[in-house]
Amino acid sequence: MATRAIKRLDQLATPCLIVEEEPLRANLQTMAAALPGLKCRPHVKAHKSTILAGMQVAAGHRALTCATPREALGIAAAGLSDDVLLANETVDPIRLAALASTKARITIAIDSDETVRAAARAGLTDVVIDVDVGLHRCGCRPEEAARLSELAQRGGLNVRGVMGYEGHAVGLTDRGERERLTREAMELLIGAHSEVGGEIITAGATGTYDCNFWATELQTGSYLLMDTAYARLGLPFRQALKVLATVISVSRSWAVADCGLKALGMDHGLPAIHEAAVWRCADEHVIFRPSGTVAVGEKVQVLPAHVDPTVAYHDAFWIVNGEDVIDRVAIDLRGW
Amino acid sequence: MATRAIKRLDQLATPCLIVEEEPLRANLQTMAAALPGLKCRPHVKAHKSTILAGMQVAAGHRALTCATPREALGIAAAGLSDDVLLANETVDPIRLAALASTKARITIAIDSDETVRAAARAGLTDVVIDVDVGLHRCGCRPEEAARLSELAQRGGLNVRGVMGYEGHAVGLTDRGERERLTREAMELLIGAHSEVGGEIITAGATGTYDCNFWATELQTGSYLLMDTAYARLGLPFRQALKVLATVISVSRSWAVADCGLKALGMDHGLPAIHEAAVWRCADEHVIFRPSGTVAVGEKVQVLPAHVDPTVAYHDAFWIVNGEDVIDRVAIDLRGW
Lengths: 336, 336
What we know:
By secondary structure, chain A is of the alpha/beta class.
């Protein structure tokens, strides 16, 4: 990453994503200290960038997690990791064959006879058994894990262990409840692992990074950039990501900036603006009531509620240090 | 557009956008019959595609509407229209200069001294006065329109008329209320126009295409592809756009397909699936309860709740006719 400014913040065309360098580096260090090396398998889906993934590898986390074939193929092509987990199911034969032909070791999640057969047919070698530990999304029932593992092994696949995502716990602001649901989820996963075996028990998320004591590795994504939803949990990670916008209209009691539904993931609700009340968003607008005065042309920094679907709208991060823009980082792993 | 199949629907990698050719053509014809020629100024923001914009021009609508400089520059570069309205404010001097240097006639919305000055400084020649007619987003107060028009003319700008978006009315399912709010909004706009003059009174949307009788032209976007929010209004436009997804996991009482928050605009709520209840979405997943049985590997068609932010996640539409895929249409005007 460059150390000298390439332009100033107010020279950036808006809307665009900015990432503050200091909290970015602090987040990297905090996680590397808490979950060093292979204890943390960073999730590429949160930033979709080979450059940011490379920073996570440089922080000691050699194994990475991906949500899409595109992410896994991009990480493999960049030579960033020799242990890439595609923590999701797919039965697409063309994408599975592409994954099987990379030089990196790709491990894929399977949770059904069909996903086992598709992985084997494509020539993949490594799988984890995805177990539903209470989120009720993908994953087999815990009692099916052993049968699927045997099926996979009969199909020539190497079963590296089990995966179970405590997604129903990770966002809870009540820490006691988060801990309780995580423990219950991991009891199910440990039970499945006792039948399946293997060196990996992979789970988790940023929200349970300090209360999931049972997984051998945690798939943490949001910690690096953060969002307002995770900020409510009181974790030691700081909000590094913002959408920079320009005020384009000012009325009696509200203002409008040029950052809307096509620049922000909205599933977690409205974004936030410091010292302002955000009223609503439209395709290209955020409408807010500032606590002081703002002028047309002024820049505002908009804090997204959910990092992942926000990032997926953009093609680059600008790394900033105060008013200095020090680098442009491509979001090169978008799409599927 | 091709007439022979280039592949079959089940060969498409998912998630992806599909557009059914027959309702697409029907929507084009229905609008061209209701608002022929320049009565309709189609809004490019809904599809962000020069190919689909070209179909709207071929249907008789030579003048187009854009929401971003990128869209307007792309339409101008494609030589599609000699009358492009950028129906939004911007003060970005670089983008304004680029707009001023195109061969197309670009008209830009202004609603403040700052936006007038920025347009004049960049060398633009044509503007409309954007008036807040009740949506409370951009737009000057009606009583300011005359002063801004004079300011613009003193700055050497040609004021083509007024713009006012009745966005607070367009989505109302109660037709009487939609008509009432549209009439009240247009009374404000007509009042401003009586002071400003000019040949253009531009307003509207798909939702008021048949009840806004006062504007000289209507900016209709959603009619071409449609979404479930607009479907509730009982308009004669049919849902042509869907997200094609693949079932990747099936459990006792729910199934999961590979189309999530990064493939769907979520501000209008959950998408819909025919003969299924959609429970929720995650980054790469839609979780639903099918009324019958579904199998891993099956394709499902997901109806987005809001067309514009859904399209902005994708790089192409596949045009389909039943099970035949007949063309790929690039979404080439993404970004800003």
